[in-house]
Structure formats: C-alpha cells, structure tokens
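Researcher: Please predict.
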Amino acid sequence: MDGMRSSRDRIVEAAAALLTEGGREAVSTRAVSAAAGVQAPTIYRLFGDKRGLLDAVASHGFAAYLRGKTALEKTPDPIEDLRRGWDLHVGFGLENPAYYALIYGEPRPGAESPAARDAALILAGQVRRIAEAGRLRVSEERAAHLIHSAGAGITFELMSLPPERRDMELSRLARESVIAAVTTEKPAAAGGVTGNAVALRAALPGIEVLSPGEKALLAEWLDRMAG
C-alpha cells in the first residue's frame, strides 16, 4: 500500500512538472512514465485514464490555493471575506496559469474536477455566510454562479495579457460590480421579500422544529420567492 502511494505521488509530481514546463500538451502518458520511472499500466491502474491523471495534477496544483483559501481567518464582515477570496482566486490564476487553465479551461457539463468542486464548496460557504447575515439579494445558487463566472472570466482575461499590460484595477472593478449585484447594503429585514426569503432559506437547515418534509416544502417556497 505504501509503495502504491509512493508511485502515485511520484507520477503526480512528474506530471505537474511537465505541465508547468510545457503546458497540457506536454503531459503525455509516455512522458509521465519516463519522468516518474514507472510503466504506463501503473498510471492507468492508479488513475483510470489520462483525465483521471489530469484531475489529480489539478488537485495537486490547487492544494496550496485551497489551503490558503480555507485558512483565511473569518472576519465579522462576510462580504469583506468574499473580497479576499476573490483576490486570492485571481492571484492563483495569474501565478499558476497552467494549473488554472487545466481546472477551468475545459468545462465538462455534468462533471467537475475534484479541485474545482472543492473550490466551489468554499465559495458556497462564503455565500451562505452572506445569506445568513441577511445581505444577499439573490438566491445563494445564483450568487455563487455569478461570482464564479465573473471571477474566472476576469482571471482568464488578465492571464491572456503580458504581465506589464495587466490592469489589476479591472479585477477590482469586476469584483465590486458583482458584489453590488448580489448583496445589499443593509440586512434583509430592511430590504424586502427577496432578501428575507434568502436569509430564511440559509437558516433553514438549523431549524429543528420542522420535519424533513416540512423543511423541503418550505425550501421550495423560499427558493421560488428568492428566484
């Protein structure tokens, strides 16, 4: 078992080095086998196929980012925490373009890489905190999709430019525009039906006086009101 883990780590590290040096095209089974000192069947046994290997490489490269994002100390202001998360996301892409393109550059409908899925869960947690504070003006799902798509779009735009031509003010402007679109200045109690519905929907899992069936029905109504 230890030998299998050692081979897996060696393969992932070799593939990661090839990705960084030559991009995705450089990560061929033959090149990885030679660099890791293993036979091709070992790669298929451990990862299933090349897509599985690339997903493992993406998780390897994203690990530092995910640790940093998870370790961000929460402040009393969840919207400020979202700002910091956005900046970390864009910074990761600019510092690690090969990994970022591997994770987000080839959308697969109905399927996410483990790295992208973990990042999405962290973003969902940040959005949930804003909803619980009564400051979300749209549904949690819509807010998360908008934040992610805008963040990825601005990251790819900046990645496409030479470093000396990158205008980081674009990222700030995009970030603030998205925040203004999905959040309110004041808690939902002062902001109308939609904000209140979103806030109550966020709190619903912790309401113990309702049965699972009642929660499901109320969740459906609240989602409809928030949508």
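Model: The chain has eleven helices and no strands.
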